[in-house]
Design a protein that fits this description.
49% strand, globular, mainly beta, four-stranded antiparallel beta sheet, 5% helix, 2 helices, 379 residues
């Protein structure tokens, strides 16, 4: 998540019921002040608010993606805003021509966006468009970066490598259905899940399929990679652990209902959500379920806590639970907040409302430990 500086973070560490900020609309290419949120969150004794923000370039927020030190928020009818997660300030705004179709990706100096089916590169320092490439293929995944081409999964049942300057096809790999999920950890292997329930591992450098694994029934969750293990849930009620290099099944655990929600791998646990909205904590060493709790999605974890959302009366509720037992220790009603972005570990997450309000929230123990360390380093 990056290190929070004392200047940016610590003065803004406030209780959820004690924040009133300044209202400011961000402007393209500039840095906006943090703005007061529009929807309040009631107190939660184990959560701390880091900063509020208000994005104002679209009518309705549709997507929130965390990449390193930036939170990307995009929406309808168009536009994407890059927010610095340490300060809550807007780094830049990109006024896209059409709605952003997929989560952005980053290289060292460039952000890659899917703008209405076109590949757009944006200067990471200021948000200025560098290039725009039309393609003849529908783009269903983020733009991944090969040796000299942009790689993505398409709706026509292929993975393509295309020139970032001409949009011409350099190569393609056939799938057995359209892309229903993908994962690219930054190495040579990228993983694409088809609508037929097949995981395809593809070498980006050689454009070859490394392995395929087909489940007994179609439809799977999006894959989650942790080290050399690929975790994926299936409609057949199982959570699978696959060897990321060979595709062989290392183990599987039955969870009692289809596992199509997001799978979060963190430390010695994997958290998988079933269609019955039950979160299962699976110990990867013992290869068994250690606890369950009603919930919709795990956001982030610490060694002591698991932070997740559940639905209550049509609204999201943010819960902090003991990581050992799953017992809920604290809750906060997140009325109006529908989009969430977080790293699997670290205890910090970002909540986005449909109207563009953004909050950075953190586990109290994490923030207090960070504050104590920064105070120690000052001396």
């Amino acid at each position: 998540m990056g290190k929070y500086s004392a200047a940016a973070c610590l003065p803004a560490v406030l209780l959820l019921f004690g924040v009133v900020g300044c209202v400011a609309q961000p402007r393209a290419g500039g840095r906006a002040r943090p703005a007061a949120r529009q929807e309040g969150l009631p107190p939660s004794r184990l959560l701390v608010e880091l900063w509020p923000q208000k994005v104002g370039i679209f009518n309705e927020a549709k997507m929130a993606t965390l990449l390193g030190r930036r939170l990307y928020v995009s929406g309808w009818p168009r536009g994407v805003e890059a927010i610095n997660v340490e300060s809550g300030l807007t780094d830049w705004i990109y006024p896209s021509r059409l709605p952003i179709d997929a989560a952005p990706t980053e290289s060292e100096k460039t952000a890659y966006l899917v703008d209405g089916g076109q590949i757009v590169t944006v200067d990471l320092s200021n948000g200025i468009e560098q290039s725009r490439t039309r393609t003849r293929f529908g783009i269903l995944t983020p733009i991944y970066l090969g040796v000299s081409e942009c790689v993505f999964g398409s709706g026509d049942e292929h993975v393509y490598g295309v020139s970032p300057t001409t949009g011409l096809k350099e190569w393609r790999v056939s799938l057995d259905g359209y892309v229903a999920g993908s994962a690219w950890p930054g190495g040579d292997l990228a993983y694409f899940v088809s609508s037929q329930g097949t995981v395809h591992a593809i070498f980006i450098s050689t454009h070859e399929t490394a392995w395929r694994h087909t489940f007994d029934k179609p439809w799977c969750s999006a894959p989650s990679l942790a080290g050399e293990v690929l975790y994926i849930g299936s409609v057949d009620y199982y959570l699978y652990a696959l060897d990321a290099r060979s595709g062989s099944v290392l183990w599987r655990v039955v969870l009692g209902a289809p596992v199509l929600g997001a799978v979060v791998a963190a430390g010695p646990r994997v958290y998988a959500t079933t269609t019955e909205e039950i979160i299962h904590a699976v110990d990867t060493t013992a290869q068994r379920v250690v606890w369950t709790v009603p919930g919709h999605r795990v956001l982030t974890t610490t060694p002591e806590h698991v932070i997740f959302t559940r639905r209550q009366g049509g609204d999201n509720v943010i819960c902090v639970a003991d990581s050992t037992t799953g017992k809920v220790l604290s809750e906060a009603a997140a009325r109006g907040y529908e989009l969430f972005a977080a790293a699997p570990e670290g205890g910090i997450f970002y909540a986005v409302s449909r109207t563009g309000g953004v909050l950075a929230l953190g586990d109290r123990a994490v923030i207090e430990a960070r504050r104590a360390q920064e105070e120690k380093e000052k001396k």
